[in-house]
Amino acid sequence: MLIDYELPPGVFRNGTRYSAQGRFYDADLWRWFEGTQLPVGGWRFKSAQLVTGKPRAILTWVDSENQTWAAVGSNTGLFVYTRGGSLSTITPMGFIPGPADATTGGGYGLGAYGAGYYGTPRPDDTNVIPALVWTLDTWGSILIACDGRDIYEWDPAVGGLATLLSAGSVDPLDAAPSAVAIFVTEEGAITALGAAGDPRKVEWADPEDRHMWRPSGTNLAGGFRIQSQGSLRCGKRIRGGATISTDTDKHLMSYSASSPDVYDIQRIGSGCGIISKQAAAVVDQREYSMGSNRFWVFNGALDPLECDVGDFVFQNINPAQISKVSAVHNSQFGEVWWFYPSQGSLENDSYVVHNYREGHWNIGSLVRLCGTDKGVFQYPLLMGSDGRLYEHEVGQQRDGRSPYALSGPVEIGTGEKTVSVYGIIPDEQSLGEVQVSFTTGDWTMSPDFEEGPFSLSEKTDVRFNGRRVSIKMVATPDVDFRVGVFRFNIKQASGR
Questions:
Q1: Is the full-model pTM beyond 0.70?
Q2: What is the pLDDT of residue 438?
Q3: 343 in a structural domain
Q4: In the sheet where 360-365 sits, what is the strand order?
Q5: Same domain, residue pair 22 and 73
Q6: How many domains are contained in the chain?
Q7: At which of 392, 415, 445 does a domain end?
Q8: Cβ pair 230, 248 in contact under 8 A
Q9: Dihedral class, residue 140 (left if φ above 0, else alpha if ψ from -120 to 50, else beta)
Q10: Pair 262, 127 in one domain
Q11: Which range marks the domain in which residue 162 is found?
Q12: Number of other CB atoms surrounding residue 259 within 10 Å
């Protein structure tokens, strides 16, 4: 008798492995897309020139002369790449490098070495100084950048180094404030979050004059202090307005021509704060964001995003380094990726993916600090911890790594009956590029037995018996493949 071995797409990693019965439980560099399984695309160097420091933000844009740029902010400076991969340093004069890693307020070495029990959460009694993370946007052709302290501008038509935005104001009272983060509204208003040292103050410049920040009857500059217990971290432009996130709640900022404040700001949710400055991605009018213990989506209303791997991700993350979490939109496959540092790691070495078109989740490991979608450039661009710029979703080179997917247990026997499997009929486009092994057993806690691996180049004869079976598929490194539905040739056996 032939039976199909077909599991839903994506990974389920909440609870125990047995909780993932009938689902995939683990994966790496494996993708489910439009009814098939395939590898995550490869990557290659975009440029041989390296950014110094740890890159934490990247932005691509086209200027008024139709020149293409990629700006990168690291803890040691600000840089731009041309389309051809040529790198220039535009770090402003007087810029002070910031921390590459988050530290506690007491500094390195606070507390006795070895104090406390391994694996026990530390008491929440020290402030965390976050890593330096830039926020980047454009005002027309001009790059606007904020290092968490000052706001800078860089005009490609002028070149040279970036300069303080405030330096362009004729009157010091009109000048831009300090800021924790920035973004630019649809109307062209440069917006400062955590303005002038106030963690809840929002200020914006006149949309027609980026150097005019003092409100008056002759301009549209303004400001607003939000009602929140949190501190402002992130602003994202969406269709019809902008979202503003603190570490505890989220607000909607909407342009109102009839309002004396120019923009109306209202809270749309509490207990939904963002985990870092770069932890949100915008897809049309939707914003997907990662909070401290779950994921959120704003689509006119704010809702928690059901997550099949949330239990794993939030137990696996390094809470001391959450300021480094970075979201990347991959429009080609309808995915939002979040790169985060796992337990024991100082850098982003893991990822969690939400496929918003198909509604499933994925996990894996890859060291990437920040990235941006394709569009301005032909491929998505991501930054490595070595300061190197990578093109992604191009070719099949993945540093010699083998993509894999592992299922949870699937019950193939019923009641006291076991099942004997005699053959596997593969459905794999590039036959021989994926090997399959099986783990069989009788009951939830019974001993496991390993079978395989088998190279599925054709109908494969096997022989194993059990009530449940897990499957692990491992692909040959750096090759393409497609996996569909496997079929087992089975015979019902007696109990044992």
A1: yes
A2: 82
A3: yes
A4: 326-330, 335-340, 350-355, 360-365
A5: no
A6: 2
A7: 392
A8: yes
A9: left
A10: yes
A11: 43-392
A12: 11
pLDDT at position 39 is 97
CATH number, residue 407: 2.60.120
CB 79 within 8 A of CB 92: no
Listed as ranges, residues in the chain with pLDDT below 50 are: 106-119, 496
| 377 to 67, 134, 199, 247: CA distances (angstroms) | 11, 21, 35, 32
**Helix (H, G, I), strand (E, B), or coil: what is residue 155?**
coil
Last residue of a domain, one of 370, 392, 414: 392
Q: Tokens for 274, please give them.
A: 């963002």
4: closest CA among 436, 485, 464? 485
Report the sign of the C-alpha dihedral through residues 305, 311, 312, 313, in that order: positive
164 & 22 share domain: no
* Domain match, 229 and 334 both: yes
Polymer length in residues for the chain: 496
421 domain residue, yes or no: yes
Check residue 484 and give its pLDDT.
Answer: 79
Rounded Cα–Cα distance for residues 137 and 440 (Å) = 53
Closest CA to 452 of 435, 432, 476, 475: 435
| pLDDT attached to residue 493 | 60
SS3 323: helix
Alpha-carbon span 360 to 429, nearest angstrom: 23
Same domain for 330 and 445, yes or no, is: no
Other Cβ atoms closer than 10 A to 404: 18
The single residue listed with the structure tokens 């022989």 is 463
Domain assignment present for 345: yes
| Helix (H) or strand (E) run with residue 316 in it | helix 310-316
Residue 275 tokens, joined: 């985990």
Distance set, CA 221 to CA 236, 262, 463 (Å):
19, 8, 75
In a domain, 111, yes or no: yes
* Among 273, 213, 280, 221, residue whose Cα is nearest residue 247: 273
Residues 131 and 266 in one domain: yes
Residue in this structure with the two tokens 């506690």, named with its chain if needed: 104
* Side-by-side strand order, sheet with 77-82: 55-62, 68-74, 77-82, 87-89
Strand, coil or helix: 313: helix
Burial of 377 (0-12, 13-18, 19+ CB in 10 A): middle
Cα 285 from Cα 289, distance rounded (Å): 13
pLDDT of residue 27: 97
Q: Answer whether 230's CB lies under 8 Å from 281's CB.
A: no
Are residues 197 and 338 part of one domain?
yes
Q: Are residues 23 and 117 in the same domain?
A: no
* Nearest CA-CA partner of 41 in 326, 430, 403: 403
Question: What are the φ/ψ torsions at residue 173 (nearest 5 degrees)?
Answer: -70, -15
Buried b (16+ CB within 10 A) or exposed e, 168-193: ebeeeebbbbbbbbbbbbeebbbbbb
